[in-house]
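Readers outside the structure-tokenisation community will struggle with the description of the input data as it stands. Showing the layout once, in full, would remove most of the difficulty. For illustration, here is how one protein appears when written out as sequence plus structure tokens:
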Amino acid sequence: MNIREKLELREHVILSEYASFSDKSKGRERIEKDNEPCDIRTCYQRDRDRILHCKSFRRMKHKTQVFLAPEGDHYRTRLTHTLEVSQIARTIGKALSLNEDLIEAIALGHDLGHTPFGHAGERALNGVCSYGFVHSKQSLRVVDILENDGKGLNLTWEVRDGIVNHRTSGKPSTMEGKVVRLADKIAYINHDIDDAIRGGIMKEEDIPEEFTAILGHSKNERLDTMIFDIVSKSIDKPDIIMSETVSKAMSGLRGYMFENVYSNPKAKGEEVKAKKMLELLFEYYMKHPQEMPDEYKLLNEQFNQDIERVVCDYISGMSDQYSVKVFQSLFVPVSWKM
């Protein structure tokens, strides 16, 4: 018996009956060359590693979370958000005896398809592409097709299901996917408050008492309240749930953030420019697809991917800084030199 088989056996001993067991995975979409399981890692551990080492994961460090191009090193990026989601989800998963490896893989991959400039970029591409653009579906497209020269990462069904269903409207099929879906909301509500306070957009005291009285008066208190509530209400149950009181307070706090932070001119004042920039880039590459990098031209020419979709792939994969650099090279004149 090798190490992987011992780990798989141990899962059946220590995990909840509602957990996703590695040796019961529905498997991958296609058979791989060696088609042999790893002697050391379970299938979900392999998926985690494939995501962690892919290019799209590294690019998230230069993508906006909420605050577009903030001055300072301590504001969240799409990558730090991803790591916080993973930590929160694993804490919940461990307490509920779920499969932490599956949780981690889903969490690390859930935002791989996000655009530069956060949801402003997503809205821009959704408006110009006839197929529409939703970052959760793009994240699945990244792991299914875009990575590994058009072959994708070939992840397990359970990880792919968790990635595409991580939004509020999603319906994950596994308990682990449900954990990540809630951890995503818990993470961004709390770290966005933290960043907004750091940026002088709001103060802790500005948060209505109707929410803080239930959730707490600091980031740590709110995290403890939300996580403990999920664990206490979900333990030994076939679902991941919150109490009605905490759930309503969290939804109310989320609404407060949309009203007072996510639409605040100080934090979002540059979004109109970012949105227009990505729209112009889309328009340009639709007319000049031959100027995209070879890997994207290959998607269109050899893999028969529609050019609109491929242009979206290229632009959504850009970091904030790279999209600005490309825009400047295409539309901003430079000094003439002999």
Summary: The mean pLDDT is 94.
